[in-house]
Amino acid sequence: MDVKINCGSGQRRFDVSLGWVNVDLVSREGQVPDIIADGAVLPFDSASSSLVVLHHVLEHFGCGEADGLIRECHRVLQPGGSLLVFVPDLWKLAQRWMIGEIDDYIYCANIYGAYQGQESDRHRWGFRRQSLVRALSGNDFARWSQIKPFDWRLVPGADLARDWWILAMEAVK
Asked: 7 and 49 in contact (C-beta within 8 Å)?
């Protein structure tokens, strides 16, 4: 059975009626996942998923701390399946902040995260395109056939935030 995984679902649940399973380590009022699990040990069979989404998840890990999560995403993906990754684009944010197009609050909320009472809410790492590609490809455990910018196609049932400050990449197994 093919499953689509929204890993680190948090505030952004995807539509379960369209085959999505929302997974998160934390459950709180208004943000209840379908499965509570650590992303480094996903409760899915190998090659069981055609699509895994990390929507504003990787920035909550320190440098190198998401390796287990990326390994698990690769493991559960079917050959030809895709990992979609969305993170704040530090380069674009810094450029606009430096010229005064965004204020300190917007800049810092994207850099440090929107704290909701859990230490895991804080951002611990930042990305621009080169560093995100390196995080996805710089490990022996994840051999992707392709890593490319996400084309912003419609993903049925997935509520993907699209804005100028979002860096979106696709890694194909």
From this structure: no
Q: Which of 2, 1, 50, 4 is nearest to 23 (CA)?
A: 4
Each residue's pLDDT tens digit, 57-89: 999 999 889 999 999 999 999 999 999 999 999
3 Ramachandran zone, left/alpha/beta (phi>0; psi -120 to 50): beta
Q: In angstroms, rounded to a whole number, what is the distance separating the alpha carbons of residues 143 and 147? A: 10
Using CA atoms, how far apart are residues 97 and 111, in angstroms rounded to an integer?
A: 11
Q: Is 79 exposed, middle or buried (0-12, 13-18, 19+ CB in 10 A)?
A: exposed
Q: Which two tokens stand for residue 90?
A: 């530090």
Structure tokens at 140: 């022996």
Q: What is the H or E stretch that residue 36 is in? A: strand 35-36
Give the position of tokens 């090659």: 47
